[in-house]
Design a protein that fits this description.
CATH class: Alpha Beta
Number of helices: 4
Strand content: 15-25%
Order of helices and strands: EHHEEEHH
Distance between the termini: 39 Å
Strand order of the largest sheet: 1-2-3-4
Largest sheet: 4 strands, antiparallel
CATH superfamily: Gcn5-related N-acetyltransferase (GNAT)
Oligomer: single chain
Structural class: alpha+beta
Number of domains: 1
């Protein structure tokens, strides 16, 4: 078995988080279920998109399995080098509705923090909408600090 692939069964009563090394039908199905819980305006991620994310040197795709082995959460870590050092961002954290408040989010974030540190990042950033109250409490409990900053977004008109 590929060591980057999650095992079929997580530890008893626990959460098992692994990096996605191979995009299987099960991973595609899980993202089809999880992405709409994260964003009602984003379509589910396609197999090709998941393969590109998993294969990219700039991103790490994590999945979490519950005690029964089912994928119950995901997180994407972006790690990149800029002139001032290695930066890391946590993006698109989502835990299945039925698995919330069971430590899945914490396990995903912990795995991402460990991976970011191993890659040389000194800090890890993330954003979270204020309406995601439980997620914001989790990030504060895990030592993240709210920063005063402006976040800007420009929507691009892409061809096609």
């Amino acid at each position: 078995m590929d060591p980057a692939l999650p095992p079929r069964d997580a530890p008893p009563g626990g959460v098992d988080v692994r990096e996605v090394g191979e995009v299987t039908d099960e991973v595609v199905e899980a993202f089809g279920r999880l992405v709409p819980q994260l964003s009602s305006s984003s379509p589910p991620t396609s197999r090709d998109e998941l393969v590109a994310i998993a294969a990219s040197e700039a991103s790490v795709l994590f999945v979490a399995r519950g005690a029964d082995g089912t994928i119950v959460g995901s997180l994407t870590l972006a790690v990149f080098r800029i002139p001032t050092g290695v930066r890391a961002w946590i993006e698109d954290v989502v835990v299945d509705d039925g698995a919330r408040a069971a430590g899945v989010g914490q396990a995903l974030v912990r795995a991402a923090l460990d991976r970011a540190g191993a890659a040389g990042a000194r800090t890890v950033d993330l954003t979270s909408r204020p309406s995601r109250e439980a997620a914001n409490r989790l990030y504060l409990r895990m030592g993240f600090e709210a920063r005063t900053t402006n976040v800007y977004r420009k929507t691009l008109d892409l061809p096609g």
